[in-house]
Predict the 3D structure of the following.
Amino acid sequence: MKLPKKIRVDNYTYKVVPIKNQNIISSNKRHKHRKLMGEANFPKQKIRISTAWSRDEVAETLLHEIIHCCAEREGLPHDEHYVGRISRRLYQVLKDNHLKF
Ligand SMILES: [Zn+2]
């Protein structure tokens, strides 16, 4: 997919940064050695997405990071297990039903 340059979540504007490497090294000190397909940095309002994957994987990763940003904005917990399952299912629903808003 063609990544948007920015994603707006409420009054925050996240810059979307495509990364050519297959794995992104986490910028979070707690997860320093984890390899990721994407990562949202809330204080810096930046979403990094690896573009070395299939169209569906890149799109779902972007959706995954957007869900993290929305949960963060709402003060909701957003552990990887929860966000991973929601993003996979929501992406499938949006895609299979051809939903565009
Ligand atoms: Zn995540």
